């Protein structure tokens, strides 16, 4: 497999930095090709602006329209175009980050904002039908996505009754709103808890867990999300009556 590993941690000597290095080593040893986007090392610009699209700053910027024009014309800034090429090449994408304020660091959110532009990440249509391709279909269909995250809190606090919310719900925006929306199959995440307090033994166990998960990157069962075109949603993108009656929330969107 071709694997794109997107790493977002400012400290290479952290547990996260060690996991990124060990993960790449394990994949290469298994015969996979790996490309790493180390966002902090790259000094990735996380801020969308007119320069991304060659847009005249004197004119009002409509981000969706400007990004689509630039994408279609091949005029996106070079750093965005390079990351899109990495995504096209990849069979699997790993998003690795520390969980800060129940989400990824701003630099990774900015990577998503700038790279997944109109026409590439969203607003993708089937030329034969005009149907919008999303939630199980899209430009990145056929690829797999894995979240690897280090978390300072204890595991129980992210359980079904944990104060921070269930981890599946916390990561729903990435699993469903990024991976699945663009067509990628989302794999169950790997979370390493108590990361700030990890000693040598805990770090070793985390590496072993990571290697085990990476061994199943091509064959593990993905999260069973409902596809938009599978018949479960009406024309307003609302789950049809009779499916999950009396319930609401992210869990409804699992088959």
From TrEMBL:
Enzyme's top EC category: oxidoreductase
Keyword line: Oxidoreductase
Protein name as annotated: NAD(P)H-dependent oxidoreductase
Record has Oxidoreductase as a keyword: yes
Keyword Transcription regulation (UniProt): no
Family to which the UniProt record says this protein belongs: Belongs to the NAD(P)H dehydrogenase (quinone) family.
The organism's place on the tree of life at top rank: Bacteria
EC number from the UniProt entry: 1.-.-.-, 1.6.99.-
Source organism of the structure: Prauserella salsuginis
A Pfam family the protein falls into: Flavodoxin_2
GO molecular function, one term: oxidoreductase activity
